[in-house]
Amino acid sequence: SQQGEEDPQALSIQEGENATMNCSYKTSINNLQWYRQNSGRGLVHLILIRSNEREKHSGRLRVTLDTSKKSSSLLITASRAADTASYFCATDVDSSYKLIFGSGTRLLVRP
Amino acid sequence: DSGVTQTPKHLITATGQRVTLRCSPRSGDLSVYWYQQSLDQGLQFLIQYYNGEERAKGNILERFSAQQFPDLHSELNLSSLELGDSALYFCASSPGGAPYQPQHFGDGTRLSIL
Questions:
Q1: How far, rounded to the nearest angstrom, does the alpha carbon of residue A103 sit from its chain's CA centroid?
Q2: Which of A12, A35, A42, B78 has the fewest CB atoms within 10 Å, i.e. is most exposed?
Q3: Which helix (H) or strand (E) holds B114?
Q4: Contact between chains at A44 and B105 (C-beta distance less than 8 A)
């Protein structure tokens, strides 16, 4: 079963709008990462947030982490058509070396 | 370009057959990961190798096996193929293999079982 579940499953917005997608997970984590996947391509790492961090920024990306609610959100500001992709959260848990990916959010940014 | 190379890009074969997928990690990366992505199962972690040794195992079937060679390239062998094995298979690499290190993905091998 998936450790992370993204919400919504799909999101369609206009270029220039902000996009917010959420990730919920089940067990305590060490770190949480967000990846982007363009259609038919491999995943690309976007940002990592550690379990003791609450917020992190990278360019137009803002990630928050609430360990009490076991959830994270990814905000993309001033979206562009090139942001159209699927976005996945990934968590590593305890002493495991595994990285567990969520089910993903498909984002469509309309020009 | 992630620096991770996967071959072949596409593979079409029949049930019961055996195939080998190949991955060359980014230069300097010691750890290789294999994932399976399908519509119904999502992105599933299969196995991780670090410097030639198996480090972590996920939902990898007994019909599947992998290895990492001294030159650090890796191969994923899939045997007795079934229709349900049709999927995208990704290889990723990272420098040291710790889960907090970003993984760099290849563009995958699309496997179609007829």
A1: 10
A2: A12
A3: none
A4: yes
Residue of A nearest to B49 (CA): A97
The reply to whether omega before B8 is within 30° of 0 (cis) is yes
Asked if B11 has any chain A CB less than 8 Å from its own CB, the reply is: no
Q: How confident is the model at residue A95 (pLDDT cuts 50, 70, 90)?
A: low
Q: What tens digit of pLDDT does each residue of A50-64 get?
A: 999 999 999 999 999
Q: DSSP secondary structure string, A39-92?
A: TTS-EEEEEEEETT-SEEEETTEEEEEETTTTEEEEEE-S--GGG-EEEEEEEE
Q: Which two tokens stand for residue A25?
A: 């997970």
* B92/A43 CB distance under 8 A: yes
Contact check, Cβ <8 Å, B107/A100:
no
What pLDDT was estimated at residue B41?
Answer: 80
Residue B97 and residue B103: Cα distance in Å, rounded?
Answer: 9
Residues in A touching B97 (Cβ below 8 Å):
97
User: pLDDT, tens digit, for every residue of A23-37?
Assistant: 999 888 889 999 999
Q: Do residue B107 and residue A41 have CB atoms under 8 angstroms apart?
A: yes
Q: Which residues contact A24 (CB under 8 A, 6 or more apart)?
A: A4, A5, A7, A69, A70, A71
